Amino acid sequence: MLIRILFLSLLLVFPAGAQGLLPSSAQTEESRVAEGSEESAAAVDDLVRILEDDAARAALIERLKQAAPENGAAEEAEAEAGDLSIARQLAEYTQGIAEGASNSVRSIGSALGNLQALFDGTLNADGEALRQFAINIGLLIAALFGSFFLLRLIANALGRMIAARVSARGVAARITGLLGLAVIDVASILLAWGLGYVLALNFGTTSRGFMGINQSLLLNAFLVVELIKLAVRIVLEPRFPALRFLPVTDGNAAYWSFWSARVISLLGYAFMFVAPMLSGLVSRPVGGAVEVLAMATAVTIGIIITLQNKDDVRQWLGQISERRGNDGFGQLLAAIGRFWHLVVIAYLVALLVVWFANPDTALPFMIAATMQSVFAVLIGSLVVGFISRFVSTGLSLPDDVRQRLPLLESRLKSFVPAVMRVVRWIVIAAVVIAIGQAWALFDFASWIGSEEGLAVAGSVVSAALILLAAIVLYVVVASWVEYRLNVNFGKVPTSREKTLLNLFKNAFTVALVVFGAMLALAQIGVNIAPLLAGAGVVGLAIGFGAQKLVQDIITGIFIQFENIMNEGDVVTVGSWSGVVEKLTIRSVTIRDLAGTVHLVPFSSVDQVSNMMRGFSYHLAEIGVSYDSDIEEVKSAMHEAFDRLMQTEHKDEILDDLEMHGVTGFGDSAIMVRARIKTLPGTQWGTGRRYNQIIKEVFDERGIEIPYPHVTYVPAAGGGASKSPPPAGRVEDQSEDSAD
């Protein structure tokens, strides 16, 4: 029954450095206050206890052997030190693991034997000291935890009031409320701790103003344990969800708070109070047995918790991976979700084995490395989370900037997420490096501080800055070209400016990519001279093998110099006519009247006809009947032009109607021609409206616009017949005839 009570009283775990708090080398309270004449007797008693204990005696013999090695053993050690083969290092590593596991099993067996000896009464213990300890500790426990329970009730009531007042308010109010609640909880812990010291100094079996060392151990353990538990409660806040900032459910917050509190209490009170107390009152082996039992229990609880949450964590990480579209980072999270529990269990078992094997040096190292790793992962997660939220939220420019630079927002949305993804992987790499540094897998700090490390880091940073500067320069130049081509702001660009600015942007982008890549490669130590020479050879080979491409480029250069066409012009290039949509150094893109896009390489262009250079003409060539009065026709055409000048097309007409007169005699009409001078590109709209007005004026004046038509005349004597007549005559009624 007593061992069950002891086990249940130790159910709590937090491997955060309690081993460093264990006063394993401290002497007992009685030996510290004893007179100098009794020190030698206490030392003899300690030696007797060591010799009586098999494990302690074996450890003492081993240390004595190590203190006086034989010459042969020393030579063998030197030989082994000189042998740095991978096989020997692997053998030494596996040997250490096997010895650690063996020592772990031996420690557990020794601990259980010591506890059995304690409960069987075979170990000697000072009965009076136990009686005084029971009285003092009993009073202190009752007063300490009783007062703390009452103070916690008051703190919870105040916390409910604070949570109710800030639940519907902003983040600042919630932070203030959380800080206020933390202050109240800290005050309750300090009040209970202070009250415990007052009671320990004034009540019990010790003289007033004095207290036993075990009472001080309990009070200090209480302070440290409750403050750590308070820190966990502030983060999870299972009592008041309105004050919780961590994105977890109420059930998860209560679950993790419950088990964290018990783990913290288990290790805290076991290592800081129970084990030192039993070491002083009974024997060191008994105190060590309690430590072994507490550590094994804590690791067991950790493994059980890990297995309980295996599927939940895997599903949570899988959902994150799906939300990210199973990208590279998402696949990494999914892989971690499948195997995380195995890693955690292996870590807990390794922690237990290392603690059993070498608690003085290995355990503090593992605890420090673990805390550094957790801190690195936490900081990296916050940074990666911020970057992911920034990328998912996107950029939103002000309306004024969006109007001036319509393409800037889309351009930034294409560049910024890519840069942020690179930064995210850099952060992940930094976290991995920090974890490796914490576990002494490699000494990155020393390497980065060396000349080689500084040179490599400087080269990488310089290359990254060059690439970043190239991206920024591209965005700036592209935005300037976009602003210059924006017809809503500043000077309206001409067709020539549109063409040259687009060509400049394309050429600048190509040059920037080439020179930026070359400079970045040069910064990281790549010799770019062979690359330049190779590029020249490749260019020469391309020139011979792709003569058509070279011809396209050369012809395009001369076309640009001669300025025969620009974007927006209506041209005829080869056999294609239409509007120039895009003009590069190699080809021209034309959209015809039917909307079909034609890509015409300059090597196939023999001539270019531009219909929009300087000014244009609408050529009105009208056919009238042979019996029409030509002067009347000219007057009608002038009247139509006067009516045209009263329409919206008047601003497009540059001169008066240019009358050419009769230009030809057709089979059924006389051709009368006039010409209207217009702004370039407006001749078609002006001409269509002028033709419409010509038709109206000719109808009003009775001027006939002849057109070919036929009349069917049956043969003589033919009447209505069910079958077509065998023969007949077809006459052009537009001609004068005897019929």
Automatic annotation (TrEMBL):
Residues 369-447 form the Moderate conductance mechanosensitive channel YbiO-like transmembrane helix domain. SUPFAM superfamilies: Mechanosensitive channel protein MscS (YggB), C-terminal domain (SSF82689), Mechanosensitive channel protein MscS (YggB), transmembrane region (SSF82861), Sm-like ribonucleoproteins (SSF50182). One of its GO terms (cellular component) is plasma membrane. This is Small conductance mechanosensitive channel. It comes from Devosia subaequoris. Belongs to the MscS (TC 1.A.23) family. The keyword Transmembrane helix applies. Residues 549-610 form the Mechanosensitive ion channel MscS domain. Its main location: membrane. It is found in: Cell membrane. The keyword Nucleus does not apply. Residues 507-547 form the Mechanosensitive ion channel transmembrane helices 2/3 domain. Residues 1-18 form the signal peptide.
